[in-house]
Design brief:
Elements (H helix, E strand, L loop, with lengths): L5 E10 L1 H14 L3 H9 L3 H10 L4 E7 L2 E8 L8 E8 L10 E4 L5 E9 L13 E6 L26 E5 L29 H8 L5 H21 L1
Antiparallel strand pairs: 1-4, 1-6, 2-3, 2-5, 7-8
Length: 234
């Protein structure tokens, strides 16, 4: 059965642990300039930040083959590295006469893990939303932090160290076929305190795109493989 023109490209995916290794290598090149770099990112243009993630393949970019060329659909961004998530992009299938649909997913080397990819037209733009009441919120010490997350007001629950967490309890939905969506806002910072000087030659190569994120990932992988081979041979 032919899919409707207005469909969705669904993936079950997450960003990989390898991404964390590549990111840590980059952070170390910044050295004592790391905090200044974080401040610059915080005060920068969000659109430029997201476009940089797309251009460097930190996002997973999706394309559909139409009329003999690859057409950009959109990007899956910032899924995190801990758990697989179901992510969706709108997919326009009009003007595709072929019996098969060709999709391309791209990212820098090794930065994403894919578990499932599929296309569906079983969706509707008419979504009925019901807000569920937050019953309670407690942090890892048992302190009540509900008042800090009850409104969009710039007051945050701070989780500064590894192992800190917040348990949230919501009232249950009344409809048995409901989907649960968690909506929130906030920010995070990588906590680093490097004492080494910035590695300006590498940073200069990265900034001028002479050394892409893809190339950096491949070079680091080659170093890891070389070290493993040397260890095994010894």
């Amino acid at each position: 059965e032919k899919l409707q023109d207005h469909s969705m490209l669904i993936v079950k995916a997450k960003q990989s642990k390898w991404l964390e290794i590549v990111a840590e290598f980059f952070f170390r090149q910044l050295g004592t300039k790391f905090s200044a770099w974080v401040d610059r990112i915080d005060n920068g243009d969000p659109k430029k930040y997201h476009q940089n993630s797309i251009d460097r393949g930190i996002s997973m970019n999706a394309y559909v083959h139409r009329n003999g060329r690859w057409e950009y659909l959109g990007s899956y961004e910032n899924a995190g590295t801990l758990e697989y998530r179901n992510l969706a992009l709108n997919l326009d299938l009009s003007k595709i006469d072929e019996e098969t649909i060709e999709i391309k997913l791209e990212s820098a080397h090794g930065l994403w893990d894919l578990d499932f990819v599929g296309i569906t037209d079983e969706w509707s733009e008419e979504v009925n939303l019901t807000k569920l009441r937050t019953i309670s919120a407690f942090n890892q010490d048992g302190a009540d932090v509900l008042s800090r997350i009850s409104g969009d007001d710039g007051i945050y629950v701070v989780q500064p160290n590894e192992g800190t967490y917040t348990n949230l309890f919501f009232e249950a939905p009344t409809h048995p076929d409901s989907y649960l969506v968690l909506q929130g806002n906030g920010y995070y910072h990588h906590k680093r305190n490097y004492t080494t000087k910035p590695n300006y030659p590498v940073l200069k190569e990265l900034r001028k795109d002479k050394l892409s994120t893809h190339q950096l990932s491949r070079l680091l992988q080659e170093q890891v493989v070389a070290k493993l081979s040397k260890t095994q041979n010894n």
